[in-house]
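Practice problem: predict the structure.
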Amino acid sequence: MKTLFVGQRIIRLSSVDSTNNYTSELVRQSVIHEGAVITAEEQYAGKGQRSRVWNSASGQNLLMSVYLKPTFLGADEQFYLTKLISVAVKKVLDEFIPGRVKIKWPNDILVGDDKIAGILIENTLKSTQISRSVVGIGLNVNQTDFGDLSKVTSLKAETGLYHPLDYLLEKLCIQIESLYFKLKENKKALNDVYLESLYRKGENALFDNNGEEEEFEVVGVQSGGELVLKNSEGVEAPFAFHEIRFIR
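Answer:
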């Protein structure tokens, strides 16, 4: 592994409820250090945002968690870590499907309109700072049959080729570490590339706004992670994660 700390220790599991749960337990026991990576061939209770379950065929996709200690980030700067991981995943995928990968707020990675990866970051706070983070990433790699699920894709579905999971794991660890150091030096370092990659930026999209369907133009994302939208009257407003949801 061509990194200084991310991925220098990798724990490989055949099956687990959730790599995030497993990593959190190891952190609680103080038996792993920052940069440790846990992977699994399958998760039987993989977690996504909004309490959704992440379903994945055994051995076909990259299911992983990374333990980080971004103590340089304040409690109000948690979204910077989401930006970092989103950009890292995008950069890895750009090698295979350049120009087609977008970051959908708050934590999905898309090819066109189809989801190829999801991110779930669980932070622990101490006073006004982040003390530790468990970063979960699920990347669809070689699975092509998703049953009844729609708007889902994979690297193999997009390229027609099989992709070794270990190669992608190393590439992702390298990107995460590189961007982690950049973020530590300059918290605004990833803002431009994140916004350039933002799904539907500058376009109108339909949202569920507290139970009401409403069309907004996607403008950007604030430092705290709020999505900035413009209504039909040209008025811009920020929306937190639980206040609004993409419909299409």
